[in-house]
Amino acid sequence: MGRFSALSSRVAVAVPGAGLFAAVAFIDSDLLTVAFFALIAFLTTMEAVRLLGPSAFPITLTAAVLAGGSTVSVALLSPGLSMVLLPLPGVVVSLMQVLGDGVEGARRRTAGLTGLTVMISLCFGLMARMRTDFESPWVMFIPLLLCWIGDSLAYFAGSAFGRHKMAPSVSPAKSWEGFGAGIAGSVAGALLAGTLGAGFGAGAMIAAGLAGGAAAVSGDLLESALKRDAGMKDSGALLSGHGGLLDRFDSLLAAVPVVWAIMFISSEWAVL
Q1: CA distance linking residue 265 with residue 257, whole number of Å
Q2: Which pTM does this prediction carry?
Q3: What are the structural domain ranges in the chain?
Q4: Is 188 a residue whose pLDDT tops 70?
Q5: Residues in contact with 206: Cβ distance below 8 Å, sequence separation at least 6, in sequence order
Q6: Average pLDDT over residues 102-110
């Protein structure tokens, strides 16, 4: 029962959070959508910089501002220009870290800051595009429900039936039983939002659920490894019962590009 003790506080935060995403999806304002995801990228990046090591506030703020700007570029600019600008936050802030702290420890921060800021900007920029480029507001919920339902089923199944550990050195609570239940939940979430809601073919959404669900687990494990290296339990304390924004969106960071690619193929070629 101990693992379920924080469930009520998690639900108390998750329900209004889901309502906020629903409001952005159904209000149908490009300005609101892009501003909302740029703000999330800004706040998530501030947590990511702190997770990778002690940094002066100007460095953290610079990374967050540049990540928010890169999110806007992914959401609004042409794909080619967006890809050129995307690594900018990590490169600039990594350079600031190297110049300020010297070479020792700079390699890990350089790779980590560049990689995480690119993941954050790409994820939330594409989330904004899902709402602005597609007619149905349900498109935005494909990666959201994929991650939320998958994560929930993995949590409950792993707690109740988990016997075979998946990555004990990184995340001791994760099990292969939970992973299987999570993938099933991801497929269900993709079908619910993508097929019933947005009208995508069932084949495309099953593929999105399988591939996106597996990617979501990898994103979760990546953040768990970073927190373990940093000696931190949570990336932040903004969300009661959930930790920080990076804790809540780590799965989404890896899942969104995968889901976007499958949606793009399905829309352009109508093969699924």
Answers
A1: 12
A2: 0.86
A3: 1-133, 136-272
A4: yes
A5: 187, 190, 191
A6: 59
